Amino acid sequence: MNWFSLFPQSRLRRLIATGTAVLLVLLGAGLTTPGNAAAATPSSADLAYYDVTSPSAPAGSLAADLTRRGYDVLEGPLSNGVPILATEAAAQRLRRQGLTVRYAGPLYQPVAASFQAAADTYYGGYHTAAGHETHNQQVVTAHPDLAVLRTIGQSWRKTQGSGGHDIQALCITKIATGDCAANTSGSKPKFTLMAQMHARELATGELAYKWIDYLVGNYGNVAAVTNLMNTTELWVIPIANPDGVDIVSSNSTRPVSQRKNAHTNGCSGTGLGVDLNRNSSYHWDVNQGTKCSETYPGTAAASEPETKGIQGLLSQIYRDTKPAADFSPATTATTGTFLTLHSYAELNIYPYGWTNSLAPNNTDLKAIATAMSRSNGYDAVHGDGGLNYFAPGATDDWIYGTLGVPGYTIEVGPSASGCSGFFPAYSCMSSFWSLNLPAFMTLANAAARPYPTGS
C-alpha cells in the first residue's frame, strides 16, 4: 500500500503544505521523532511510546485488554498497533507474553542543559498553574472592560487544606450590563474553552493562554475578534486540573506524566488521583478503570471537586434545551458551544463519545465538526473514533447529553512527529496555534445558532 494512502486527504494536504517547515523546526531544535527506527532504545526505567500488536487478537480487542490490565493506552490510529506509554521493562514483559512491542519514540524532547525556566514556566516555556493564575489576574486588571475573573470551585488538595488552587474561569466580551453573570439571563450566547483537564497534556493549557491574549489583544483591531466579542461571551477555563499541573511541572525539564487529579487513593506515582474526564455525572461508568489506572473514574459520578465546579459553572451559564433521554434532540432554540482541549491525535470529536450510536442532533453536530476540520485539517469523528476506547463520563458528552449544548473535543497534535506526544517541545506551540485558532473561531461563531436544521 502507498504510505500516503494511510492518511485522510485533509491530513495529507496539511502534511505536504507544512512538511518543509516542520522538518526545519525539527532539525533546528534537535527534536527526536517518535516512530523513527533509528531512535535510541530507552533505559528500562524511562517512560516512552510503544506500539503493541498481537499475532491473534485484533487491535481493538488488544487495546481493551491492555487497558483492563492497567497499561496506559493512548489516543491515536491503530495502523501501527496499539499505542501505549510504558517503560522498557514493561515492554519486555509484554514481549515475553508473545506480543510484538515496537519502540515508537521518547516521552521527552531535548531541553538544553543550560535552560533556566522563567518565573512560572517549565519545560521550555509552558506555564505552571500559578503562572496561569498570575496571567488571569493581569488580563482582568489591564482590560476591565473586556474580562471578568471568576472562581468556580476548588481543587482536591485545596478542599483538604493541603495547598491546592481555586478553579478559575475568565469571561471575555465587550462588557455590557448583565454580561458574564453566573446565570442564564444574559442576552449573549456563550462559548467555553476548557484546557488541561488531563494535566500532562501540556499544549492544551498553553493554547488557552494564547486564546485569552488573542482576544483581549485584538479587540478593536481585528474585525472578526471585535464582532465576536461584541456579540458573544467567551469563557475560558485555562487549567481544569491545577493540582495535576503542579505535579507535572514539579520537574522543569522532565515533566511528570500525571494525567489525573491529586486525590489520594493509596496509589503511588502517577497512579494517584481520579481521571476527571471519566468523572462527569453523565454516563459515569464504574468499570472504566481500577483506582490506580489512568482512566479511574472515581468512587461515584461527579465525586471530585474539580468536576463539581466545572459542571456547576456550565449549568449556570447555559440554558437547558434538551430532554433527559439520550436520543431526544435539543431544540433549534439552543445557543452556546463548548470545547475541551486534549492531546494528542489530530481529531475533532463530536458527541457522543460513550457510544457509536448517532446523537439526535447529529447532522448539525457533524456540520460544525466538519467546519472545524476545514480550519485545522484534523479528522472529524464521534464515538470511539480512533481513540481506541469510548469515554463515558466525559465533559463534552455531559454538556450535550444534559443541557443540549454542542460539546466538542480537539485532540491537539500529531501521532507521529517531533511535535507529537504529551510533552512536545515548546517550539511546537506556534504550529498548534496557527492550525487551531481558526477552529476556535469557527466554534465560537457557531454559538449563536448551533442547530440550524434541528436534525
From TrEMBL:
Protein name, as recorded: Zinc carboxypeptidase
PANTHER family from the UniProt entry: PROTEASE FAMILY M14 CARBOXYPEPTIDASE A,B, SLL0236 PROTEIN
Reaction(s) this enzyme catalyzes, per UniProt: Releases a C-terminal residue, which may be hydrophobic or positively charged
**Species this protein is from:** Actinoplanes regularis
Provide the E.C. number(s) assigned to this enzyme: 3.4.17.18
Is Protease among this UniProt entry's keywords?
yes
Active site positions: E411
GO biological process terms, semicolon-separated: proteolysis
**Could you give one GO CC term from the UniProt record?**
extracellular space
Q: Name one GO molecular function term.
A: zinc ion binding
Alphabetically sorted, this entry's keywords are: Carboxypeptidase, Hydrolase, Metal-binding, Metalloprotease, Protease, Signal, Zinc
Function according to Swiss-Prot or TrEMBL: Carboxypeptidase that possesses the specificities of both mammalian Cpase A and B. Thus shows broad substrate specificity, being able to cleave Cbz-Gly-Leu, Cbz-Gly-Val, Cbz-Gly-Phe, Cbz-Gly-Lys and Bz-Gly-Arg in vitro.
